[in-house]
């Protein structure tokens, strides 16, 4: 009989066997009716319906650090036994390459609850990132070296963070390599496919710079006369203005990636605007107005608490995307950033509606990751907990379960278990929780 690997993070409740505990990895028969006794719980091809009871004034029992920490350590051990650390296996950058596993180890080592494992995790992270840096150095395409999640820029940023945590003066070397990449992505049309999105474009460079500012307290900028960040922001705005004029858009800034006008966090307008808001101190008054007009325009594109993957599309319920990469779980971060800046309630209300959608839509079938898996959706609840302090959202984060089909990148950061580990660690420190490499609190 065929089987499906299912990773249950938070068990209990009426729809799971009582003996399934936190982070138990079990193998159950397929189809899933053997796990969900009622076939009606299978809502559609993308997700299982959420039949958990909602918050009733108490968090789930048995979620203390003492209970959870050993299970997380076991999952990390499993990842490290499987991960390949060879230069021929370093493709994929932070997204689904070994560099993302190195970031996960760094993230875990930063949590005081893992002080006993800190040295081992950081040394292992260094071994992995050293090979990834050599891979990035050898990349012949300078545009790919400038990519955040898929290329060298992200690898160099994470290398600097790991080296600094180890107390190594060598952290300056990858930091310098990262700084020098701004010249690659500064030209308006440096990428034919689209120069401004998060994975390979300028928004990604800004995002990596933001992470370095947060983790190391180091600004990527040089001097007021040679402000790399300002140059990148101005290039993004000018690119968006040119595209909007050329396509006769009724709003000031728009972008495309491979000819598609995406709206979501992965390749679209929301993450571009989020990065511009994160550096609004370098923008002129007129440039800020363009950004805020575009933020408010994107709010008008909401359809039943969600956003279509691309501009002008009508959401079809059966094919609705409720992922970090496309849909409300990723767009929510833009409005969270907007709310943190100006405290207008409509932005927080939009985030809350996004969270309600995620709770209603239930459990994604695509895997455990943070890009289009359950952990990525669950991070919305940790975001809302930090924004509101309402324990309901922490409860909802606890209730998330991961359904994990085996795949070639099962241990990666964005599509696999490394992202899940980051989520589990953040559940232990919800007041400091953040979606990996995508902060709104800086």
Automatic annotation (TrEMBL):
The residues the entry assigns to the signal sequence are none
One GO biological process this protein is involved in is: carbohydrate metabolic process
Give the keywords, sorted.
Metal-binding, Zinc
One GO MF term attached to the UniProt entry: metal ion binding
Record GO cellular component, one term: plasma membrane
| SMART domains to which the protein is assigned, alphabetical | LANC_like
Q: Which family does it belong to?
A: Belongs to the LanC-like protein family.
State the protein's name.
LanC-like protein 3
Which species is this record about?
Xiphophorus couchianus (Monterrey platyfish)
Q: Name the gene for this chain.
A: LANCL3
